[in-house]
Amino acid sequence: MTAPRRALIVVDIQQEYFDGMLQVQYPPREETLSNAVRALEAAVEHDIPVVVVQHELPEGAPVFAVGSPSWMLHPEIERRLQPTWKRASKVGGSVFAGTDVAAWLADHQVDTITIVGYMTNNCDLASAVEAEGLGLAAEVLSDASGAIHLSNDAGSVAADQLHQTLMVLLHSNFAAVATTDSWIEAVRDGQALPKSDLGTSATQGRAHFGG
Fold first, then answer.
1. Which of 34, 63, 71, 169 has a CA that sits 20 to 30 A from residue 14's CA?
2. With bands split at pLDDT 50, 70 and 90, how would you rate the model's confidence at 211?
3. Could you report the per-residue pLDDT of 114-166, keeping only the tens digit for each?
4. Are strands 6-11 and 176-178 parallel, antiparallel or unpaired?
5. pLDDT above 90: residue 175
6. Measured in Å, how far apart are the chain's first and last C-alpha atoms?
7. In Å, what is the CA distance from 157 to each residue of 109, 152, 154, 171, 186?
């Protein structure tokens, strides 16, 4: 089997998710940051291309207003930036929407994206789903991403339940889900991460829950 041609996509690791109204609630944000940094270090060690994406809204916006503290990259990411890394700004959920990230990945012969950063329930999900349409395999590192509590007219869900549910959902079709440790091992071995599929996940789901 041909080794994956990976790129690490660092999604919106910005101060908003640590100090703002969108603070990541699960997994613990400092742990997810530490794992994202470990993934970055492994990417550098193994010459994996890196894309650093930053959500950006106009001045005066309540979150991610360009130039505001909310918009700034976390210092642990900022101080590691390298000139060879691709930088991109986005206004939507997916890292591909309205950006040249897909073209940049194609230029670098990337066939697999590894997603770290925030949020599981928005930009990570949107990016993994859109990758399928672009012909890219996706990987999501479960302990280097995170979710928030949500409540609206449709109901309420806690961040831990939301994150865990979305990991199962992604692994059933859209992305291989793994821990940072497992991903680093796969990178060192030049291997793809294992991923389930919808049929297998459905069969196992029926066996687990009945019906």
1. 169
2. confident
3. 999 999 999 999 999 999 999 999 999 999 999 999 999 999 999 999 999 99
4. unpaired
5. yes
6. 37
7. 39, 9, 10, 20, 33
Report how far apart, in Å, the C-alpha atoms of 41 and of each of 21, 47, 49, 134 are.
Answer: 29, 10, 12, 27
**Superfamily designation of domain 6-209:** Isochorismatase-like (3.40.50.850)
- For residue 1, the model assigns a pLDDT of 59
Q: Which residues of 87-100 are buried (b: 16+ CB within 10 A; e: fewer)?
A: ebebeebbbbeebe
> Is 0.90 topped by the overall pTM?
yes
Compute the distance between CA of residue 79 and CA of residue 106 in angstroms, rounded to an integer.
Answer: 27
Give the H/E segment covering residue 107. Answer: helix 101-107
- In the block, tokens 């959500």 appear at 55
Q: Which residues pair with 138 in a beta bridge?
A: 113
Domain extents in the chain: 6-209
